[in-house]
Write a structure and sequence with these properties.
Number of strands: 14
Structural class: alpha/beta
CATH architecture of the largest domain: 3-Layer(aba) Sandwich
Number of domains: 2
Low-confidence stretches: none
Distance between the termini: 18 Å
Helix content: 25-40%
Strand order of the largest sheet: 5-2-1-9-10-13-14
Bound molecules: guanosine-5'-diphosphate, calcium ion
Oligomer: single chain
């Protein structure tokens, strides 16, 4: 029976992790050495992609986390810069900025613009974001299936402690999350629903993994879609274990600005605090298992006392091998903690 693995993911941390999951599954099939490998070989991987950073710019629909996953998993991302397309140029963006159509703090690469124009054209022709995503993946087969978490358009705003309100992208990209945030607001979230592909993948899942993505504006945004939390808890008719991987190592957000987001919602930047924010399933939360870094091994006992099967493993995703090893540890944790 083909196993089905569902990963909830944001952009950069999510893409590195999903690449690791894909590789761990590939290796399990290529050189099976344990019973876990036999279980995981040829598993199908579905990714529920955060849509909370999506926005309109210059008349184009931009989906940053989706496209980070698309480019990383199809091997077209700029590894050195860490985002965007390989061999990217910015001639069109310079024109748009000279026209004053786009702000100088948000650059759209020429190749990347091709994706945004295609997406917008298809949306204008009546396709849903999920259908647009499927077309992009048809051109660049990924070996996993991406699903926008929702097909409903929900943009995120940030209200700062000084009372200013700005689009998430302006706060994140222009101000580098440096203006203390009081809260995040998602316009229209009450009417949003998980996308059809997301619902179907979760219903059939054997395991759910929470990527080491931003717990607030990536995983938190996915889970805030009405119906999503229940769909995750009831994944595989309630039998799918939920395994989370900490995006915080030794009290720091290793890449990105998750600390600024955690502070805004009153959660300490700490691997155990993030696990407690998600909560143990036995205490009304989500988690069956949680992986922290080897640096955070002292946190494991306390988390186990809370009812979460915690373990300490190397958490840095430096390259394909380290990402695959982390993914294999998460998959093993799921297999070791099946739900009755
Ligand atoms: P974004 O949408 O591009 O912000 O990316 P995500 O939400 O997927 O993930 C961003 C978070 O991933 C960062 O704030 C880090 O906390 C985490 N992260 C990035 N690289 C690593 C890594 O190598 N290991 C782990 N455990 N977490 C990471
Ligand atoms: Ca993001």
């Amino acid at each position: 029976m083909t196993r089905r693995i569902v990963v909830l993911a944001g952009g950069v941390g999510g893409a590195r992790f999903v690449r690791g999951v894909r590789e761990a599954v590939r290796r399990a099939a290529e050189a099976p050495s344990t019973s876990a490998d036999a279980e995981l070989a040829h598993a199908q991987i579905d990714v529920v992609v955060n849509t909370g950073d999506d926005w309109w710019l210059a008349g184009l629909r931009i989906a940053p986390d989706h496209d980070s996953l698309l480019y990383t998993l199809s091997g077209q991302n700029d590894e050195v810069r860490g985002w965007g397309r390989l061999g990217e140029t910015e001639r069109v963006s310079a024109e748009l900025q000279a026209h004053g159509v786009t702000p100088d703090w948000f650059t759209l690469g020429d190749l990347d613009l091709g994706t945004h124009i295609a997406r917008t054209a298809w949306l204008r022709a009546g396709l849903t974001p999920s259908e647009v995503s499927a077309r992009l993946q048809a051109r660049w087969p990924l070996g996993v299936t991406l699903h926008p978490a929702t097909d409903d358009e929900v943009d995120t705003s940030v209200v700062t402690t000084a009372g200013d309100r700005l689009h998430f992208q302006e706060w994140w990209t222009r101000h580098r999350a440096a203006m203390p945030a009081a809260r995040f607001e998602q316009e229209g979230i009450a009417d949003a629903r998980p996308s059809p592909g997301t619902r179907a993948a979760l219903a059939a899942a054997d395991m759910v993994l929470l990527a080491p993505s931003n717990p607030v504006v990536s995983i938190g945004t996915i889970l805030s879609i009405p119906g999503m939390r229940d769909a995750v808890l009831n994944a595989g008719a309630g039998a799918a274990p939920i395994v989370g991987v900490s995006p915080i190592i030794a009290g720091a957000a290793v890449r990105g600005m998750a600390d600024a987001c955690l502070t805004a919602i009153g959660v300490e930047t700490d691997a155990a605090a993030v696990a407690r924010h998600y909560g143990a399933r036995s205490a009304g939360g989500l988690l069956d298992a949680w992986l922290v870094g080897v640096e955070d091994e002292p946190l494991v006992a306390g988390l186990r006392a809370d009812g979460v099967a915690a373990a300490a493993v190397p958490l840095w995703m430096r390259d394909l091998d380290s990402s695959a090893a982390l993914a294999a540890a998460a998959l093993a944790a799921g297999l070791e903690h099946p739900r009755a």
